[in-house]
Specification:
- The chain has 162 residues and is mainly β.
- The chain contains 2 helices and 11 strands, in the order ββββββββββααβ.
- The two termini are 33 Å apart.
């Protein structure tokens, strides 16, 4: 394996870093129990990756087993306990634990034991924000989707339920 082609061709470097403080207000609230921080979106990284801080409250929440065709997804636990599914088994993950699910890799997560925080990384940087925002709207409105509507939502966002 070698380094990829250069993305920056200058000789002097640039002052282009972005700083996000830990106390920044979340970008999205899902159901009053999950706070999502858009640390680095696919758009802001030129499609290289997307990184999100996912803060789950005391009430259990999370995603059911699924996979993606166009990007990988990784989880790094910062605080609390998160049940992670690697397509074969559920594991109670603690701070410092990590799960990588390559494209096509079945995975899921759930906080069953109280509040928990994790980093979620998508590579390359898929446009996940519209998916998160649509989920938040569905939860906030109490709208009930039919199976066909859920399938449409998932298909539009490269999410295939297992």
């Amino acid at each position: 394996m070698s380094y990829p082609d250069a993305l920056y061709l200058g000789d002097e470097g640039e002052i282009t870093g972005r700083f996000h403080t830990a106390d920044t207000v979340p970008d999205l609230l899902i159901g009053g129990r999950t706070k999502v921080h858009y640390l680095a979106t696919g758009e802001s990284t030129g499609g290289q990756y997307g990184l999100y801080r996912w803060e789950m409250g005391a009430e259990p929440s999370g995603g059911s087993p699924h996979f993606h065709k166009t990007f990988s997804e990784s989880f790094f636990i910062l605080d609390g306990t998160v049940s992670l599914y690697n397509g074969d088994a559920w594991t109670k993950a603690s701070p410092g634990d990590f799960l990588f699910a390559p494209a096509g890799g079945i995975h899921a997560f759930r906080n069953e034991d109280g509040p928990a925080t994790m980093l979620v990384l998508f590579a390359p940087g898929a446009p996940r924000e519209p998916y998160f925002e649509e989920l938040a709207e569905i939860v906030a409105s109490g709208r009930q989707l039919s199976d066909a509507e859920w399938t449409d939502l998932y298909n539009r966002h490269d999410q295939y339920m297992v």
